[in-house]
Amino acid sequence: MDPTAPNSGGGAAADATGPTNTTVTLPPLTLRDVPRLPSALASPSPSPVVPNPISRHPYFHPPSTFYISPGDVSLRHAFFDLASASPSPLLAYRRAGPRGDLAVDPARARAALVTCGGLCPGLNTVLRELVVGLHELYGVRDVFGVAAGYRGFYGGDEDHVRLEPAAADDWHKKGGTVLKTTRGGFDLGKIVDGIVSRGYTQVYAIGGDGTMRGAVAIFQEFKRRGLNISITGIPKTVDNDIGIIDRSFGFQTAVEIAQQAIDAAHVEAVSAVNGIGLVKLMGRSTGHIALHATLSSRDVDCCLIPEVDFCLEGKGGLFEFLYERIKKKGHAVVVVAEGAGQELIHRTDDQKREQDESGNIVFLDVGPWLKSELGRWWKREHPDELFTVKYIDPTYMIRAVPANATDNLYCTLLAHSAIHGIMAGFTGFVPGPINGTYSYIPLEDIAVAKNPVDVNDHKWAWVRSVTNQPDFLMSQA
Amino acid sequence: MDPTAPNSGGGAAADATGPTNTTVTLPPLTLRDVPRLPSALASPSPSPVVPNPISRHPYFHPPSTFYISPGDVSLRHAFFDLASASPSPLLAYRRAGPRGDLAVDPARARAALVTCGGLCPGLNTVLRELVVGLHELYGVRDVFGVAAGYRGFYGGDEDHVRLEPAAADDWHKKGGTVLKTTRGGFDLGKIVDGIVSRGYTQVYAIGGDGTMRGAVAIFQEFKRRGLNISITGIPKTVDNDIGIIDRSFGFQTAVEIAQQAIDAAHVEAVSAVNGIGLVKLMGRSTGHIALHATLSSRDVDCCLIPEVDFCLEGKGGLFEFLYERIKKKGHAVVVVAEGAGQELIHRTDDQKREQDESGNIVFLDVGPWLKSELGRWWKREHPDELFTVKYIDPTYMIRAVPANATDNLYCTLLAHSAIHGIMAGFTGFVPGPINGTYSYIPLEDIAVAKNPVDVNDHKWAWVRSVTNQPDFLMSQA
Amino acid sequence: MDPTAPNSGGGAAADATGPTNTTVTLPPLTLRDVPRLPSALASPSPSPVVPNPISRHPYFHPPSTFYISPGDVSLRHAFFDLASASPSPLLAYRRAGPRGDLAVDPARARAALVTCGGLCPGLNTVLRELVVGLHELYGVRDVFGVAAGYRGFYGGDEDHVRLEPAAADDWHKKGGTVLKTTRGGFDLGKIVDGIVSRGYTQVYAIGGDGTMRGAVAIFQEFKRRGLNISITGIPKTVDNDIGIIDRSFGFQTAVEIAQQAIDAAHVEAVSAVNGIGLVKLMGRSTGHIALHATLSSRDVDCCLIPEVDFCLEGKGGLFEFLYERIKKKGHAVVVVAEGAGQELIHRTDDQKREQDESGNIVFLDVGPWLKSELGRWWKREHPDELFTVKYIDPTYMIRAVPANATDNLYCTLLAHSAIHGIMAGFTGFVPGPINGTYSYIPLEDIAVAKNPVDVNDHKWAWVRSVTNQPDFLMSQA
Amino acid sequence: MDPTAPNSGGGAAADATGPTNTTVTLPPLTLRDVPRLPSALASPSPSPVVPNPISRHPYFHPPSTFYISPGDVSLRHAFFDLASASPSPLLAYRRAGPRGDLAVDPARARAALVTCGGLCPGLNTVLRELVVGLHELYGVRDVFGVAAGYRGFYGGDEDHVRLEPAAADDWHKKGGTVLKTTRGGFDLGKIVDGIVSRGYTQVYAIGGDGTMRGAVAIFQEFKRRGLNISITGIPKTVDNDIGIIDRSFGFQTAVEIAQQAIDAAHVEAVSAVNGIGLVKLMGRSTGHIALHATLSSRDVDCCLIPEVDFCLEGKGGLFEFLYERIKKKGHAVVVVAEGAGQELIHRTDDQKREQDESGNIVFLDVGPWLKSELGRWWKREHPDELFTVKYIDPTYMIRAVPANATDNLYCTLLAHSAIHGIMAGFTGFVPGPINGTYSYIPLEDIAVAKNPVDVNDHKWAWVRSVTNQPDFLMSQA
């Protein structure tokens, strides 16, 4: 199946210096479909079947091609090795978008929106577009914001606020979330009871991996109870650590703002004698922000991410590398993802036991630790040389900004995709772009899909060629 | 092939509310390959075959998976309608990236970089990465910038400047191009003579559609003369009007900066009695910037693009729509792409004949025209009502900014992809992402590939739902 | 009086290389006082006298030094030539700030706020602080915004909107004005009738020189009718063309944002062969923005302002200067204030007669004219040389931005000064900083005080040394 | 002397509602002069006397008023209380600016520029303008940058770098300092020996209060040795804690950038249940940045500065105030200057003894301490209520940015003022604006002049009225 082999047409014909065409056969394709509401699966026909109200829009007359057809799917992988001896089967998902026929009656819909966990640029854009989209695209009148995260579902009336498009008009220009957000508080029974008692028929849960796992549990509880209530999850992780989808919202804004911190660290480093600028960027399990920020900045001499081990001292270690870099250039800039080097930091017994409210193990702060270790090492190894290290932790200045234009558009398409899917009768799904095509993915697949930086990939290779940082291999031996 | 049909598994089984899998067969796949240098096609084996020097990198030891294999391809389309009665054949391109074996000896390579046409955010990042990548990835020592566009190839020595990585270090933080750029001056014979006489062995041409067509001609002239000189084109079009690739560099930066102009127009409009803010954005043949800027901003009441006809006066026309919007909201904001409404503007005979230096027909300035027509109409129809229209043309403030982080990363991957392709012996190609995968596309395919806004697509539908602007249909009747 | 003369102590004593002290006598000082309300001048004592409610603030206990004393004045000129043969008499104004005793009863006060003319950064901050300050500092409950400028005073109820602190909370982060603003519509009788009939007891008029002249007329009409209504003017002129006060609000924000336009023009110029970047900045009668933007930017080769004549062609003219600069540096950047060169532009008979709504003569657009003249000249004089001129008019993108931090603070102090003065019984005044001290100045003095750029001063000299632009003297001969 | 007393003209005459004039007599004025070089004091006449080369500028022909005359002085105080029983004597300083005759021959001048201490926005602008101004205004060809702070004077050749205008062209767009800066290393004998041995005839020392005290010592040592070497100090303190001058450079840029941190803290606070945003801003001995940032932002609920005591717990304490604010508004934002509350923080014996390199006592980090105390208090007092505090320390992101336009202009005028003074033969002085007029002040006066926030002044009162924070009085009892 190798197209460059002589028999596949990549040969040396006289006109071969122009473009050439070669044809091959592909493995079979499997569609990984999302669940539906019981009512949407009813036989002989789903109930209700409602024509999409967009068709009756006063101004906009959608062309026939506007609606997604039942056969519209997106491919999980957009590239292959045709020469592979054992090609893996191809996977596809349903395309997101409006359907001509709804399985949900907008007039009876009652939507609940909830945000959980930490801030992320774009949260308010997602909320705005859910409110505006539900009202203006589908005429849903009952849209509620649930405050204080999942625990708001079993909170008082003050935690359930009716949301109107007029009030939501400029939310996308604001950082944070207009719904108060919290961590923890997940109590499945009380949550589902609360949803039922307040009459919600659709739930939009926006949050991190803990929130997605919670949404899976809620979805399964709905199913167990036989409820015609739909749920969709919108993954919120500024770290971009969720798999299958192309990227998470807010990520590009974070990379953009991280440039300011790296710039500042660079300025501090070059303005000092033997200066080091150290920037900690978000990324507990993955180093995407660190990696992208490094590639966008070019001022970084070393990028440390959770996916790659490193050692501090000794031949081939980080400190020696930095010392040599300083001798050569006069300064150095280090970017470290918050999850990097966790296993190197000395942890007290208490710290070994501790967990955060979402049940994650407590991360120790790699930034001050690295600064302190570096200072100690320099004082010991080079006591007569001046040395300065400036440490910057821009976390809260990054995650609190409004989304940039790219993320604003992305959040809009996400929110609208979620609404279209819910209205079509899907449930237990996540909307998201796969190789650029907005699609629906089963919530339970997303809840377990990781997205580590592929250190065999070219992007990491490019980081390496930009920074010229070593493998830290010898010292790992 | 419809996965929702009963026999394809989308049925109503008891557990059907969980994710389901369905399998189908795909049409055959055609690889659309790029040309190669004559020497790379030599038989029995290409000459030279040089191991990739990245393998000898002092710090970075690329894993076995680092190099692109001959069978690595990317898919042209990442989504399909499985239910389609007559599915179109699938198309693939070669994946971009480093190859283990080179068909070009870096020690003998002599690269020429040229930028043509107007400015675009990211130009300097592409140039920086070509210089740095050629030097640091491949050890190419002879890299030259050709000033003044294509005409620089037959210009004097002052138009051929040796470029070094140290000097290029902060180019990505600067707007514009460090090479002087011009329009026109394309003289095929003199250009190829100049390339030959200066001993260039690889040409990187960065420019718009005219520049790409020029690159095709140069490629064909190389082939006609049997020269072992490679050429690659890097499409530069802030308008995003080139097809096949996901988007053009600088586009997202442009959308980002356009927000400032729309914000200003919005402020002017809301601060006046019956105020209209009018913003002209770049986009001669396509309205991508206008569309994306509108979707990112939300303050826009009407978005006019070249792909959609509109009319000014009469029932259902633009002016009536704006008047009603003002009566309702007190103000209105209009975004117009520069290519919109060209056929409506009165053109003198001289203007009908005129062409610009690249041979394009001269565009009349839609912004002042629209402002003037609107003022005239208001004065005539509503003489007793106050009225203000503020017109903003941010063109040069947009295209002169440095690339944002997203575009900086994109430009890096583009430039490195170009280098890897050239070193592998490809020629007459364009590097670019296709559904997220960097690939090589025949130059001649790119030179004719348009990328109009798909007004049947959801993005345009979303614009319509954001702005609630009418179809302008009645008036076209 | 010369301190450097031997007898004044500036001599050559052995220890004279340390700091020395010399004492001289100053001319007498004249206090230029502002008018008061008739009730505040009543004899034997003003009526009412109300203790300042700030003294009863629940949290803040002002120290005895908090209130301005009746003798507190500020000096008009903070520097002198002691050696001057005929020193001019010194002038002083009342210091602005809270008084211990009020001449106005906050409980009966009814304030009207109006904005007139074009936008200026900080307008909304002034409005916010008037609303918040009246409520929170003095407990004034009746604060109204008058929409549509002066004509709103005789408009309908919809033009008189009650303003509350809660709604005003984030106005300072918004560009423009929350009150619709208009030009013209000044009808003295109808305005004063409107003020009286709506029961306003204090008027805050924010606007340009026309608005200040209107405020003088209103003040005099109040006096003529014997009304106990006070009026204060807050000069709004982004051009900084009002005298006596240190600078006008929004000016520094404008200079800041103008950098973006100059940067863009500079990038366009350096990226072209023989490129010129041309930026028009605000400034009809004065060139302060052009001058400050030039000094802050350093990329400017020539700065043209209304206060300095120039000529285009011939020996020593602008075009020759630019040509030489291009030959030397490869490019040039020109900043032109909108009022520069008005007498050079060919004006049709119609244009000679035209006036704008505020009665100003119509300014012709110097930017496109200069661009066109320059292009014509180059084509004639240097037909075989490439040439590009890019013209940027950032006016609406500058004036619509929110105030920066410096201007936000300034607007706050201005608004609070206005309130304190009104509450003390002053009227017909303008608040403003004089050599850094906030003071009260008679409205009629401000209405005629011009603030041209002092071309004999060092700041203009610095522009000249930064740009090295010539005197354009020869050509004026 | 009270102008409002009947006999001083502020009376109740019929036309008294117009502006009035009153005349008074002022106390005598004392000129506080700066030292001069021995050669400039030589008798019978200074040697050399060189005409200012600006008069021979090829393009610019300075008017007669261009040069500062010997009698030009600026007033120390621009406001008075005329009613004061015992008015203090008036003080004046020499105006800064170019003199017609120089006491220094530019052809023999050899200038040394040094930066000491931490970064501050505008450092590079000052350096740029010293280099460009010395070259272009006066034709000084020998300008050197001394690296590594004061210790560079006795360092090797690599610490003495010749500086040229072309290379300095874009320094003002860069943060940090192009000269490596350090703290400490002050060794008077070795510094002056180094200055003499390298033939420097003028020294420009840019740094904080320690640096200014060092400059006084160097000046006195020059005097003691009878050297014709001049020294000027340019105070660098982003905190604005130096007296006499209006403000220090970089301060306004710092206030501007601090807004971003406050915005982020505000977003974090409002997005949480019972959220507090805590921002630490620079200001060891003075709270100017905190105060100005608070006044510019309006989102701050409490501003803590070194000049005002506060207490944490108990009735009327900070924590109770914040709890009440949260109950009322749902969130709170606190800005704390780094020097605030130092006496409240528990200090170990080691910490009590510690000093930094400049000999200052070590400041403990008030931010994390306050965050921790607050968390402990909440957990104890309100264990059942959710609570979040997000802490932001933007220090290095603030001080590393380039100067904004306002500071760029200011730095230019400072640098040029320094050069003009040195060329006129002055030494041991500091240039700086006094009530808006650039002046020369004896270095020894500046070295001891503090600039605390005047908490009796209106600006602090405004902070109090903006934040409504209490006096913390009860708890201090």
From TrEMBL, chains A, B, C, D:
Residue span(s) of domain Phosphofructokinase: 111-420
Residue ranges, annotated region (Disordered): 1-28
Keyword Nucleotide-binding: yes
Composition bias, Low complexity: 13-28
Biological processes per GO annotation: fructose 6-phosphate metabolic process
Keywords: Allosteric enzyme, ATP-binding, Glycolysis, Kinase, Magnesium, Metal-binding, Nucleotide-binding, Transferase
Cofactor requirements of the protein: Mg(2+)
Catalysis: reaction(s): beta-D-fructose 6-phosphate + ATP = beta-D-fructose 1,6-bisphosphate + ADP + H(+)
Gene Ontology cellular component list: cytoplasm
GO molecular function, one term: ATP binding
Function as written in the Swiss-Prot or TrEMBL entry: Catalyzes the phosphorylation of D-fructose 6-phosphate to fructose 1,6-bisphosphate by ATP, the first committing step of glycolysis.
Name listed for the protein in its UniProt record: ATP-dependent 6-phosphofructokinase 2
Species of provenance: Dichanthelium oligosanthes
